[in-house]
Write a structure and sequence with these properties.
Blueprint (H helix, E strand, L loop, with lengths): L1 H54 L12 H7 L3 E2 L5 E2 L2 H32 L2 H16 L2 H17 L10 H25 L3 H9 L4 H30 L2 H6 L17 H8 L5 H38 L13 H39 L2 H38 L5 H13 L4 H15 L6 H25 L5 H7 L4 H12 L1 H17 L2 H6 L19 H12 L6 H34 L1
Antiparallel strand pairs: 1-2
Helix pairs in contact: 1-11, 1-13, 1-14, 3-6, 3-8, 3-12, 4-6, 5-6, 5-21, 6-8, 7-8, 8-11, 10-11, 12-22, 13-16, 13-19, 14-16, 15-16, 16-19, 17-18, 19-22, 21-22
Length: 600
């Protein structure tokens, strides 16, 4: 009898093990298929873009002048409406000039500010100071573009050499100021990665603090800073909204700082929505050129990261500081560097204060009925463009992150798709807008509508949520899920009942940051949702609409040189305030999650 019950118990356990194994196989099959489909869609879009872009050169001879491939890459005029000429050089030279000028503006300030913060700010305050830089980096590009129109362009117009403030110099300054907080955060993290042993050896050899900074800290941190600079270069090359707002948008071949110019990304934003025929095909060629430049830089970044991966893990240690500045000249130099870093943070705080307080004043005391109704309408459209993409992307992003983190035995091409998803984080948003216009608006027949915009933003948000979810799972104690499996739970049960609750804080923080990004996206929204001249029509998923970011984009340009800038400040205050709230929530949730993990 005892033997009978023991055999029955063994059969039940074998049945449970078999069901658990089948469940794991089903989960693995679903997640593998899902990840493969996403990777395949990315490759199909790239192939379609290459096919359309290359096909545009076949037999191309406008006005009897053979143009073709050489005429496109070597042409010095972009006049699609009047002369039917499509020369890449004016647009490419502007993209490269704006990117180089922005880095020249941002990188020295970022090196000084990041180094001073990392070396002199108390350890307990560094995370908060770095959080300020992260918040400034998260502000939408339309906010920087509007600030450039309201503040930088009028200043340039006062210089006699500038016929108009809308110029290449304005684009360089605005994009450079937009890249500055990102680079400051990169420098702070890079300086923290430098091992204390290098500093101690230099200090013991008699080097002063300035000498240690210049000869030890910066050279040791430069490999990580270099990756951040390349990422900033990708963002500058793909920036469309801010460049459109301040560059003047004249497609001429000129590198004079005072001239009006237009970049590749700005041309896509301005012309892709209405172009057709050969014009539309050659705009796809522009997108292909932009994507090719971005992919080359992304591949170089991946190679650098692979080379530095093990070293980065070894350098995670705290360090002590020494404030021995040596001679009077070094003390004066250190004081000047501190003043520069302080001026950067004061400028950030001051600009945010002006936008929020002036906008709040307009909303409370000076907003008329029409302004209030426009803000309410745009706010509702922005809420739709935020909620629906998050609802679509959150389950997919979390599933991919679970698969990449908790299912180590997977096909090799799926592992490479994880690298592909990481690389998609650096793709400019204008490329996603191009994808949404081609696939959702034209191929699926949705036209320029809210639904097409929601689907496009869901695709754009997906890589960011995958990265945030993976970071959340990496913060979970690594033995938690294996312990549940060892106690008899299936892999799915261990993930859903143990790992997911432990990673809830990181997942919520990723959603908050994603919400802030969705609220400020402009270029892909203009391409897929449209511009909706009327702000009083009913909101429908199948019609065009104007969210808050697009409203700021047009209102700031219309208010340039006029007195009607109060509605612009009101819209800027609402959008900036929402982004700040989302990132403060993300910071608070992440901080609380880290405290709970440390206590465990």
């Amino acid at each position: 009898m005892r033997w009978f019950f023991a055999a029955r118990s063994l059969d039940n356990q074998q049945l449970i093990d078999k069901q658990r194994l089948e469940m794991d196989y089903c989960d693995r099959f679903y997640l593998t298929t899902f990840s493969a489909v996403l990777a395949l869609l990315s490759l199909v879009f790239l192939g379609y873009l290459i096919w359309q872009g290359v096909e545009a050169f076949t037999g191309f001879s406008p006005n009897g002048i053979p143009q073709g491939l050489w005429g496109f890459f070597g042409g010095v005029q972009w006049r699609p409406e009047q002369l039917d000429l499509f020369g890449l050089l004016p647009l490419l030279s502007t993209s490269l000039a704006v990117s180089a000028g922005a880095l020249i503006v941002a990188l020295p300030l970022a090196l000084v500010t990041g180094l001073v913060v990392a070396e002199l700010v108390p350890q307990a305050m560094i995370a908060r100071v770095r959080g300020v830089a992260d918040v400034m980096a998260a502000l939408p590009s339309v906010v920087y573009g509007a600030a450039g129109l309201l503040w930088i362009v009028p200043l340039l117009e006062k210089i006699p050499a500038f016929a108009s403030g809308l110029s290449l110099a304005a684009a360089m300054l605005v994009v450079g100021l937009m890249l500055l907080p990102w680079l400051v955060s990169v420098v702070i993290r890079a300086v923290h990665s430098v091992p204390d042993g290098l500093r101690a050896a230099a200090r013991n050899s008699g080097a002063s603090t300035i000498q240690i900074w210049w000869r030890v800290t910066l050279p040791a941190a430069w490999p990580r800073i270099r990756i951040g600079v390349l990422q900033a270069l990708v963002r500058a090359l793909g920036e469309a909204t801010a460049v459109c707002m301040v560059a003047g948008n004249s497609p001429q071949l000129s590198l004079w700082l005072t001239d009006s110019v237009r970049s590749i990304s700005a041309t896509l934003l301005l012309e892709m929505g209405f172009a057709s025929g050969r014009h539309g095909e050659l705009l796809l060629s522009l997108g292909l050129v932009l994507l090719a430049m971005v992919i080359v830089i992304q591949l170089f970044i991946l190679r650098l990261r692979r080379f530095q991966g093990e070293q980065a893990e070894k350098n995670k240690e705290s360090y002590s500081r020494s404030l021995d500045f040596g001679s009077l000249a070094e003390k004066l130099l250190a004081g000047g560097l501190m003043l520069i870093a302080g001026a950067v943070f004061i400028a950030w705080a001051g600009s945010l204060a002006v936008i929020i307080f002036k906008g709040a004043w307009v909303l409370i005391f000076n907003a008329g009925h029409l302004v209030s109704m426009n803000m309410l309408y745009s706010g509702m459209v922005s809420a739709i463009l935020m909620i629906i993409p998050m609802a679509l992307a959150a389950p997919a992003g979390t599933s991919i992150a679970v698969f990449l983190h908790y299912y180590p035995h997977r096909p090799a091409f799926i592992s490479r798709s994880g690298l592909l998803i990481d690389s998609l984080n650096g793709i400019p948003s204008i490329v996603y807008g191009l994808f949404g216009l081609l696939v959702f608006s034209r191929l699926f027949g949705l036209g320029q509508s809210l639904l097409a915009g929601c689907l496009t933003l869901a695709v754009l948000l997906l890589p960011e949520l995958v990265r945030g979810a993976r970071q959340a799972f990496e913060a979970v104690p690594p033995r938690l899920a294996p312990a549940g499996i060892a106690l008899g739970a299936s892999r799915r049960q261990a993930i859903l009942q143990l790992a997911m609750p432990a990673a809830r804080g990181g997942l919520m923080a990723a959603l908050c940051r994603g919400a802030g990004r969705m609220a400020g996206e402009t270029a892909p929204v203009i391409l897929t949702v449209g511009i909706a001249r009327s702000l009083t029509r009913d909101i429908s998923l199948f019609h065009s609409a104007r969210p808050l970011s697009v409203h700021i984009y047009f209102a700031a340009q219309e208010a340039l040189g006029s007195s009607g800038i109060d509605p612009v400040y009101a819209a800027l205050a609402v959008l900036t305030g929402f982004v700040l709230i989302m990132h403060f929530l993300a910071y608070a949730i992440s901080h609380q999650g880290r405290k709970s993990h440390d206590s465990d």
